[in-house]
Specification:
Multidrug-efflux Transporter Regulator, Chain: A, Domain 2; 3-stranded antiparallel beta sheet; 2 domains; OB fold (Dihydrolipoamide Acetyltransferase, E2P); 140 residues; 35% strand; 8 strands
């Protein structure tokens, strides 16, 4: 570890690596991720320890935003119907999104935060992903 090495909180280290906080904690407790303990007993991860674990620089010029849903773009579900958004109605914490797929209409109730984050608007192309009784919306 270099003398001027930056120390990260476990949550910051998790965000930098694109893994969950729980995963970082497991690595720390298993001893597979070297940390430094503060006088209060908190773990700090030296940035130099993370360097070999960081994902390779991507071809795109913009940095990856680990809080973005773009990292979840690939979905294993095969029941995907692509259509056009007919209606987006936000009411409190929830939102109603209606897709037209051919002559059919598919309605999904999702959180208002996700509608805002995905910037869903009438007329956009989106996909409905079905699993059992749940329908998820994916902007395409």
């Amino acid at each position: 570890m270099a003398e001027a090495d930056v120390l990260l909180k476990p949550r910051e280290a998790a965000a930098a690596l694109g893994v969950s906080y729980a995963t970082i904690k497991q690595w720390i407790l298993a001893g597979s991720l070297k940390t430094i303990r503060t006088p209060g007993g908190h773990h700090r991860v030296p940035q130099s320890v993370l360097a070999p674990m960081l994902p390779a620089a991507s071809a795109s010029s913009r940095p990856a935003d680990v809080s973005s849903r773009e990292r979840f773009r690939t979905v294993s579900g095969r029941n995907q119907l692509v259509g056009t958004i007919l209606e987006v109605r936000i009411s409190g914490l929830l939102a109603k999104v209606v897709l037209a797929v051919g002559d059919q209409r598919i309605t999904s109730i999702i959180t208002a935060d996700v509608v805002r984050e995905m910037q869903l608007r009438k007329g956009q192309t989106a996909a409905a992903l079905m699993k059992s009784t749940d329908v998820m919306i994916e902007r395409v």
